[in-house]
Amino acid sequence: MNLNLPELINLYFAALSFAWGACIGSFANVCIYRIPRGESVVKPRSHCPHCGRTIAWYDNIPLFSIFALRQKCRNCAGPIASRYFFVELVSAAIFMLIWLRYGLDARTPVYMLMVLGLVVGSFIDVDHLILPDRITVGGMLIGPALSLAFPALHGEQSHYLGLRASLIGLAFGAGLLGLIAGLGTAAFKREAMGMGDVKLMGAIGALLGWQACLFTVMLSSLIGAGVGVALIALRSKTFGSKIPYGPFIAIAAVAWMLGGSDLWDAYIRFIMMPE
Ligand SMILES: [Zn+2]
């Protein structure tokens, strides 16, 4: 391999983004556990869910400690769930991919923050079938504020146009999913999607624009249908009678960040072709 200096620096920051993502994933694990229980996400320090002993910093190193401890608490030998590792690894990988795609850009830190919200929201939805307002309404408030500060998030130059794109995205996302949720409830005589999903799509629109909402609705319903069919085929009882929809929305929104927007641009170029 023959790397020049800019490439080396880029790889260095990619590795740094991976490590940073693992740390944020570790924080996401805390949020996933504590937010639904109404606990503070900053204090007290992490403790073992089995024996209550505070976890030492060297037993709480993202991606590593779980192996060093052989998935057992040092104090009581209670099991440590594999999901902690999974959440850290997924966050680390997505953070690295965001850096590799956007580099030094306003979108990089904003998308990383979004990934934290999407990961936390998804796993809370899996555990409790709710999407907390702290995540969804939080995103609907932060989206327009960040778009006003960084209009480049929506490919705009002026602050006003950034804010406008964000508010259009918010209204479009929440409106579109609200419509689908309403039609779904009318068709199936039961609530297939909740207000949490509607608010989450509003937040995605506010941060990624209305085009992202169209893409996210299409891709998430494809994933949801695939997962639904697989669960029926496997006769799985993983989710009982109700499947959380938030994770599918989150996966689709991340897919938009990491390449879906290119597909969209290619599609627009295709239909706009003069001949
Ligand atoms: Zn313990």
Describe the protein's architecture and organization.
This protein is mainly α and 275 residues long. The chain folds into two domains: 1-104, no CATH class; 106-275, no CATH class. Helix content is 68%, strand content 0%. It has helices at residues 5-34, 65-68, 82-102, 107-128, 133-149, 159-188, 195-208, 210-233, 246-271. Helix 5 (133-149) runs antiparallel to helix 6, helix 5 (133-149) runs parallel beside helix 7 (195-208) and helix 6 (159-188) packs parallel to helix 8 (210-233). It is globular, with a radius of gyration of 20 Å. The N and C termini lie far apart (44 Å). 35% of the residues are buried. The mean pLDDT is 92. Zinc ion is lined by residues 48, 50-51, 53, 73, 75-76, 78.
How far the N terminus sits from the C terminus, by CA atoms, comes to: 44 Å
Q: What assembly state would you assign to the polypeptide chains in this entry?
A: single chain
Radius of gyration: 20 Å
Give the biggest beta sheet: none
Instruction: Give average pLDDT, whole number.
Output: 92
Listed once per kind, the bound small molecules are: zinc ion
Secondary structure tally, helices: 9
Q: How large a portion of the residues is in β-strands, by DSSP E?
A: under 5%
Q: What number of structural domains do the residues give?
A: 2
Tell how many strands the DSSP assignment holds: 0
How do you describe this structure in short?
The protein is an all-alpha fold and 275 residues long. 68% of the residues lie in helices and 0% in strands. Zinc ion binds next to loops.
